[in-house]
Amino acid sequence: MKKKKRNNSTKDLGDLSRKIINILRKNGGKTYNYKQIASILGVDDPGSRNQITKKLAQLAAKKEIEQVERGKFKIEGRKNYYQGKLDMTTKGYGYVMVEEFADDVFIPQNDLNTAFHGDEVEIYIYNNRRKKKSEGEVTRVINRKRTEFVGILDLQKDFGFVRIDDAKMYTDFFVQKNKIQDAKDGDKVVVEMEDWPDKADSPFGKITKVLGTPGEHQTEIHGILAQYGLPHDFPTEVEEFANQIDTSIQESEIKKRRDMRDVLTFTIDPKDAKDFDDALSFQKLDNGQFEVGIHIADVSHYLKPGTILDEEAYERATSVYLVDRVVPMLPEILSNNACSLRPNEEKYTFSAVFKMDKNAKVVDQWFGRTVTYSDARFAYEEAQHIVETRGGDIPAGVSIKEDAYKANDHIVEAILELNAMAKKMRSRRMREGAISFDKVEVKFQLDEQNEPIGVFFKTSEDANKLIEEFMLLANRKVAEFIGKQDPKKTFVYRCHDEPDDSKLASLQTIVSKFGHKLNLKDKNSIASSLNSLLVDVQGTKEQNMVDTLTIRTMSKAYYGTENIGHYGLAFDYYTHFTSPIRRYPDVMVHRLLQRYLDNNPTANQDEYEEKCHHSSDMEGLATSAERDSIKYMQVKFMQDHQDEDYVGVISGVTDWGIFVEIIENKCEGMIRLRDLKDDHYEFDEENYAVVGRKTKKVYQLGDEVYVNVKNADLLKRHLDFNLLGLKEEVENK
Questions:
Q1: Which residues pair with 515 in a beta bridge?
Q2: For residue range 478-506, what is the model confidence (pLDDT) as tens digits?
Q3: Given its phi and psi angles, is residue 121 left (phi above 0), alpha (psi -120 to 50 degrees) or beta?
Q4: Of 373, 383, 438, 588, which is the most buried if we count CB atoms within 10 A?
């Protein structure tokens, strides 16, 4: 901290309370009188000393400092210190979320003291106000969220600076010449933080990886992974370990399992899927009931605790799905071969087998390790064709084989019966308060160079919902089996809390502007009115915006050992059991389920809680990377369509700009208010609108407007639009 010059003027005493508290805090336990404080502050005129005396008395009266004896003051050792997570804004200041306070604590930029976005920090709170936000200072970085960052190298003669891509990063990194490696000026690189010396303007770092030339496809995709600390390739020793695993099917192992190879079994997956981690089996029973098996790849048979392969899978915790690739949790030998339930191959599986009546209710259940044989593989499109035509003739245009073909009659019957059961289960879930999110997914058609040549939307059809319902059934019943049997047994649950009241109230305000209503009276009425809203907006201009805003009202789902149920699905017990190839929590669930089937004692809760926390964190990073890769591809797509006019919907309004989402491709960009030259527009927060000061012209959330691209910035993954006017105005010109 720079020392103030001595100046005999009271104008140096701005925010005197804070300056006094800082002196006492940084010299904890020592007592000071007004003369000593005046000396440290560098003032000696009577007016300043008088102000200091008054302020000391006020702070003592408010119990912010302690008067030890007449005229002598100190601060208690750890009073007003708290811990929390720093949330940076793009404007250079931050907020810290502290458990003890309802509101976040404001941290000015000059009080960040080397803390970055996401860091766990200790802060000192200067004033805990009821009406205004409390303000504080970071006193210590407890735990860095990350130490590696992605940026562009600005190379000088004897050193370099790395400008970080992240808008929430407020500083660049200084890199000494001997730590620049082979990077060239303008390269996109990964820089690792090493130190931030006291008097240095920037932290010191070293370049650990050169990603390539900014704007090139491979550079940007690897940059997204590196930005979130996500791995790409497997270490050589992990690949070698995986390749040495015996993946053959052994008779001695089959004898330990329930043999279901003779039961009709098949998979339904996306047509471009390479890892098939779930299969369904189906047979009619003599009493008119059905036996349905949900068979999941037995990853835990190969993935043994304590091995380097298990450590790598745990660190990754999830597969990452970017627009042009999958970064798998497990090496290919397992993910695409040994564990993948490929057609006409015997596989080790972990199964949930249910006897079900004609109303799709479970009358008996069994869980355990099995060996299965997949009789056929279907893409969702093929299964959907069977559902719609009620027959097995798959035309060439739908077939994932080279030509048209006829599906096995028994499988066609099984798919139709399973579809009817799935519809009954789904209907029951909705009646019990589940919320139906059928959000449209944006997908890209890519050429051989991974350039986007088209955009299409993926929606959930009956075939998707068929698989979804039976996976939900397995996940729910596995969680119930452990949780109801003994709530004290350590288990991994997928938890989802009730929505936040204030977010629901905000949603109600927004949707009311489109003529929709919500009933927020109680838990069930909230769920049913949210479902009604999601149905009502289908096909409307505001659909995607309302879908997105409704999802944002929801709490974030997470993994935990304390079961609170799953609000969105309306289940009292829920877990993830069905995707161990791509999610580590499912591997943990398999291990715990087998442990309890073997009547072993409960597992260590603290150990599993830590693993749950890590898995939730990694899921969040993967989701952010996936979202950024979509945004990158949207910007890339729009670069080639800069001369076209589009109809979009105003999807957000702020005090600096209007966000617009193009209807035909879901690309979102911003119109900056300063670019609107016809008037000076002011933000109307209450009505989610901007209003022209002279013309009173209004642009409001949900309005349809014409836009074209002003700027497509691939490096910042950002689109700027020009506003051409409201849709009806442009079309009536």
A1: none
A2: 999 999 988 899 999 999 998 888 888 88
A3: beta
A4: 383
CA angle 576-580-582, nearest 5°? 105
Question: Helical H runs in 281-395?
Answer: 299-302, 308-316, 332, 380-389
Residues 580, 349, 292, 574, CA torsion sign: negative
Contact 52, 20 (CB under 8 A): yes
DSSP string, 517-555: ----SSHHHHHHHHHHHHHHTTTSTTHHHHHHHHHHHSP
- Give whichever of 6-15, 139-148, 532-541, 615-624 has the largest mean pLDDT: 615-624
Spatial strand order in the sheet of 278-284 = 258-259, 362-373, 346-356, 290-297, 278-284, 265-269, 376-379
Residue among 576, 583, 579, 626 nearest 329 (CA): 583
Alpha carbons within 13 angstroms on the beta-carbon side of residue 88 total: 24
Q: Do 649 and 703 meet the contact criterion of CB atoms below 8 Å apart? A: yes
Torsion of CA 210, 216, 217, 219, to 10 degrees: 10
* Total-model pTM: 0.86
CA-to-CA separations, 345 to 117, 127, 370, 489, in angstroms, rounded = 48, 67, 14, 36
Higher pLDDT, 592 or 517: 592
The alpha-helical segments, DSSP class H, found in 257-333 are 299-302, 308-316, 332
Residues contacting 339, CB < 8 A, separation 6+:
275, 277, 297, 298, 299, 302, 330, 347, 580, 581
What local confidence, expressed as pLDDT, does residue 13 receive?
54
> Which distant-in-sequence residues (6+ apart) come within 8 Å of 43 by Cβ?
6, 7, 8, 9, 10, 12, 13, 49, 52
Contact by Cβ (8 Å): 107, 93: yes
Please tell me the predicted confidence (pLDDT) of residue 313.
Answer: 98
Q: How confident is the model at residue 205 (pLDDT cuts 50, 70, 90)?
A: very high
Residues with Cβ within 8 Å of 8's Cβ and at least 6 positions away in sequence, in order, are 43, 44, 45, 48
Yes or no: say if 710 and 722 are a contact pair by the CB < 8 Å rule: yes
443: phi then psi, degrees, rounded to nearest 5? -125, 155
| 577-to-224, 288, 475, 495 alpha-carbon distances in Å | 29, 28, 5, 14
Rounded-to-integer distance, Cα 358 and Cα 412, Å: 18
**pLDDT, tens digit, 9 for 90 and up, residues 537-551:** 887 777 767 877 888
Extract the runs of DSSP E, i.e. beta strands, from 316-433: 320-322, 325-327, 346-356, 362-373, 376-379, 393-394, 405-406
SS3 content of the chain, % helix, strand, coil (to 5): 35, 30, 40
**Neighbouring residues of 358: CB distance < 8 A, sequence distance ≥ 6:** 288, 289
Interatomic CA distance for residues 338 and 249, integer angstroms: 9
- Residue 5: which pLDDT band, with cuts at 50, 70 and 90? very low
Q: What is the C-alpha separation between 319 and 326, in angstroms, rounded?
A: 7
Asked if residue 331 lies in contact with residue 234, where contact means CB atoms within 8 angstroms, the answer is yes
Contacts of 515 (CB under 8 A, 6+ apart): none
Supply 442's token pair: 């944006």
* Cβ-contact 52, 110 below 8 angstroms: no
| pLDDT for the residue 503 | 84
Q: Where does the pLDDT of residue 78 fall: very low under 50, low under 70, confident under 90, or very high at 90 and above? A: low
Tokens for 371, please give them: 């060996």
Span 292-331, pLDDT tens digits? 999 999 999 999 999 999 999 999 999 999 999 999 999 9
